[in-house]
Design goal:
The structure holds two protein chains of two kinds. Chain A is mostly beta strands. Helices cover 1% and strands 40% of the residues of chain A. Chain A has one helix at 141-144; strands spanning 7-11, 14-21, 24-31, 36-43, 48-55, 59-65, 73-75, 105-111, 118-123, 127-130, 138-139, 161-167, 175-180, 183-187, 195-196, 219-225, 228-236, 239-243, 251-253, 262-267, 275-279, 295-298, 306-308, 326-328, 335-338, 344-347, 355-358, 364-369. In chain B, a hairpin with a 2-residue loop joins strand 3 and strand 4 (62-63). In chain B, helix 2 crosses helix 3 (38-44). Chain B is 25% helix and 21% strand. Chain B has one domain: Roll (Ubiquitin-like (UB roll)). By secondary structure, chain B is α+β, with helices and mostly antiparallel strands. The chains are: A mainly beta, B alpha+beta. Chains A and B meet through loops of A and helix 3 of B.
Chain lengths: 370, 89
């Protein structure tokens, strides 16, 4: 069975579960060898492990394990309902390319309001909901049918996608999702109605008069502090944004050395003012700043940042950390991040010192503590 | 009856032995197959019923023409090969 300190990785070539014993970290479990694992989720309520795989040829699929990852059963794949003939094809607002009405990629899995309820974020922008532990899924039509969707567009992928689902632990009917590129959308009635909430965000890749358009925002990742869920942090395409009022207003955090560009963010579970980022040279480059792997950490809500480098390579490094590849545990002391070049680093002291846990993994898409 | 053969790469993930199944089109043949084995459908077709972008179907050696509805006609002695494309790996 899984322990909270175990690390679950989804990579370009399979799923790995790492456990720490007296001799250090060991890969204890491997699954889906050779297949991309695009998301993993351990539902502690039922001790069930979910894995989203992306077969290059055969499409995205979902699997579930009831014994900590040893045995897996394929479960229902979130399927887009048949497109009605009278619904026009959505096209990319700039390139005119057709946005598919069909599942391309599973990008997010999170616990829903009640036991057995799950949320699943996908490319091309559909949010799915399950009330039976993944045995069946339904597309949230209220969000999918928003006319705003015609303005959403892909960032790194060709089509837009939902990569962040934050469920408010005080009232689990309150859900916030982040979309690349489609901004931040919030519901207070478990998905019946949705409102965009991006006041304060700006998109510097848009003409000035459209820079504050909610649908043009590209939050790379959004995380909420579990103990103070009105504080959310966003690593955005062109900066870092924070809200302390449940996404009603966002404040841009500027002047972070060495960069405000990146994909990942982690927030301390018990201190909403403490958050970690893995910066890089901004979008046209996407390499580490000065070829050094650096984690930036603020402990005062973004007023100041510390560069954490102890144990991280400080020359000739080309690792980029994808949005889901940085994770924090329930104590707020242990973090893990994996890179595009298959390195994995862990810390047990909030990042003061880092251990090079592995150098030979496939590109890491997602890292999670169990 | 038309015969359906699958790439061994697909057999790694789902059970899909070679089968003889009746039908007048690729869609009819595969539709009957997927009725008997619903789990196989999503590996070959997308959720809108079209052939997956990185999958290929050959009908007597010729690539299927209608990738969206699979309306290509088949005869009793037709062999339908289901392969993965070279792209998409």
């Amino acid at each position: 069975m899984l322990k909270p300190s175990d690390i679950i990785l989804g990579t370009r070539k399979g799923l790995f579960i790492l456990k720490k014993n007296a001799d250090g970290w060991r890969v204890e479990t491997t699954a889906f060898e050779g297949v991309a694992v695009t998301m993993v989720f351990h539902d502690r309520r039922s001790n069930t492990l979910f894995a989203a795989v992306g077969h290059g040829h055969f499409g995205a699929k979902l699997h579930r394990s009831e014994n900590g990852g040893r045995d897996w059963t394929e479960i229902a794949t979130p399927a887009y309902p048949p497109k009605p003939d009278d619904v026009p094809i959505t096209k990319h607002p700039y390139t005119g390319a057709e946005i598919p009405w069909s599942l391309e990629y599973i990008w997010e899995l999170q616990a829903g309001a009640e036991d057995g309820h799950l949320w699943c974020g996908t490319i091309p922008g559909g949010l799915f909901h399950s009330v039976d532990n993944g045995a069946s899924w339904s597309l949230n039509r209220e969000l999918w049918d928003k006319p705003n969707r015609a303005k959403w567009f892909g960032g790194g992928f060709d089509a837009p996608g939902i990569h962040s689902v934050c469920v408010d632990p005080r009232d689990r009917n309150k859900v916030k999702v982040a979309i690349s590129c489609g901004g931040v959308w919030c519901t207070e009635d478990n998905g019946k109605t949705w409102e965009p909430k991006t006041t304060g965000m700006r998109a510097e890749y848009m003409p000035p008069e459209q820079a504050e358009d909610p649908d043009a925002q590209d939050p790379h990742l959004m995380v909420a502090c579990p103990s103070a869920p009105d504080t959310l942090w966003v690593q955005h395409h062109n900066g870092i944004f924070k809200t302390d009022d449940g996404a009603e207003s966002w404040t841009e955090i500027k002047g972070v050395d060495p960069s405000v560009f990146g994909f990942a963010v982690a927030v301390h579970p018990n201190d909403p003012a403490t958050a970690w980022f893995v910066p890089a040279v901004k979008d046209e480059m996407r390499v580490p700043c000065d070829k050094k792997i650096v984690v930036t950490c603020t402990r005062d809500g973004g007023a100041s940042f510390e560069k954490l480098t102890n144990g991280l390579p400080q020359e000739n490094a080309w690792d980029i950390v994808y949005r889901h590849a940085l994770a924090i545990d329930e104590t707020g002391e242990k973090l893990v991040f994996g890179s595009t070049t298959g390195n994995l680093w862990t810390t047990a002291n909030g990042g003061k010192t880092w251990e090079h846990t592995s150098a030979h993994l496939p590109p890491v898409y997602v890292a999670r503590f169990a | 009856m038309p015969r359906v053969e699958f790439t061994t790469n697909l057999k790694r993930h789902v059970v899909c032995p070679s089968r003889d199944i009746g039908g007048a089109s690729v869609a009819e043949v595969l539709g009957r197959l997927f009725e008997e084995d619903p789990g196989l459908r999503g590996y070959v077709l997308d959720d809108q019923g079209a052939l997956r972008r990185h999958m290929n179907i050959f009908v007597n050696g010729e690539p299927v023409r209608d990738r969206k509805r699979l309306s290509d006609a088949v005869e009793a002695d037709t062999t339908i090969y289901v392969f993965q494309a070279l792209s998409g790996g």
